[in-house]
């Protein structure tokens, strides 16, 4: 029995030694200003996300995700909204913005990285439903794209050297979505500044009720806070 425990001790010691001796290093990347963050493991593969990178371009396959993940937490800690212009990338800094061009039809969209993925071989970016719709890949499911980093920092949005104020724009608060038009109409009549938007999602027609008239994200957030008690599932959408 003593010999048995001694052998177990030796095996454990060897495993600990091997574990301590194994060191993982981030891959070398030749772009300027690269700084790596804390690594994470998905399906046994180690990824070193960038916390800072001043230049990045990538060509590959884009896919998209929608209602199956709608409302779930993203890697950034916010709730995924399939109607926002966001995307998932394995390495780019969370909060940074990228330009996505569909190389098959020339359509373009700018998105904010707020999640990690896609973890399917050959795919480089996972777009929200809204972003995928803008560049025409919803029906097909995937497309070959080119992505280009727009901002050197996740703290501001910069396109061709010009910084944009993301707080300014045209925003609305979505308070309901119905398959029956009359239900959407009844709700919209309760608000002076409202509209009904028709949407086609996976072959189904939905009538979305939105309160409009917010020219800044701050005002839209205040409006959301005022009606959240009546519509706990309400959220802000950009109309630009």
UniProtKB/TrEMBL annotation:
Residues 165-240 form the SPOR domain. It is found in: Cell membrane. GO terms for cellular component: plasma membrane. Keywords: Cell membrane, Cell wall biogenesis/degradation, Lipoprotein, Lyase, Membrane, Palmitate, Signal. Pfam families: DPBB_1, SPOR. Its main location: membrane. The keyword Lipoprotein applies. It is a lipid-anchor. Residues 1-23 form the signal peptide. The keyword Plastid does not apply. InterPro entries: RlpA, RlpA-like_DPBB, RlpA-like_sf, RplA, SPOR-like_dom, SPOR-like_sf. GO terms for biological process: cell wall organization; peptidoglycan metabolic process. Its EC number is 4.2.2.-. CDD domains: DPBB_RlpA-like. It is an enzyme of class 4 (lyase). One of its GO terms (molecular function) is peptidoglycan binding. It comes from the Bacteria. PANTHER family: ENDOLYTIC PEPTIDOGLYCAN TRANSGLYCOSYLASE RLPA (PTHR34183). Belongs to the RlpA family. Lytic transglycosylase with a strong preference for naked glycan strands that lack stem peptides. This is Probable endolytic peptidoglycan transglycosylase RlpA. It comes from Deferribacter desulfuricans (strain DSM 14783 / JCM 11476 / NBRC 101012 / SSM1).
């Amino acid at each position: 029995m003593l010999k048995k425990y001694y052998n177990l001790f030796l095996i454990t010691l060897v495993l600990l030694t091997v574990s301590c001796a194994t060191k993982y290093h981030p891959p070398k990347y030749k772009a300027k200003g690269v700084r790596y963050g804390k690594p994470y493991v998905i399906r046994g593969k180690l990824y070193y996300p960038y916390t800072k990178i001043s230049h990045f371009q990538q060509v590959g396959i884009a896919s998209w995700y929608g209602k199956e993940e709608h409302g779930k937490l993203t890697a950034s800690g916010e709730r995924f909204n399939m109607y926002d212009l966001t995307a998932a990338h394995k390495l780019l800094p969370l909060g940074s913005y990228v330009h996505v061009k569909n190389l098959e039809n020339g359509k373009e969209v700018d998105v904010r990285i707020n999640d990690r993925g896609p973890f399917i071989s050959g795919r480089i970016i996972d777009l929200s439903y809204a972003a995928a719709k803008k560049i025409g890949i919803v029906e097909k499911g995937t497309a070959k794209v080119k992505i280009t980093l727009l901002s050197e920092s996740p703290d501001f949005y910069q396109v061709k050297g010009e910084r944009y104020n993301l707080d300014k724009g045209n925003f609305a608060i979505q308070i309901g979505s119905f398959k029956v038009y009359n239900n959407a109409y009844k709700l919209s009549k309760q608000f002076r500044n409202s509209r009904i938007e028709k949407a086609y999602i996976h072959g189904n027609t939905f009538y979305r009720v939105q309160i409009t008239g917010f020219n800044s994200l701050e005002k839209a957030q205040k409006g959301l806070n005022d009606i959240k008690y009546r519509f706990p599932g309400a959220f802000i959408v950009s109309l630009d």
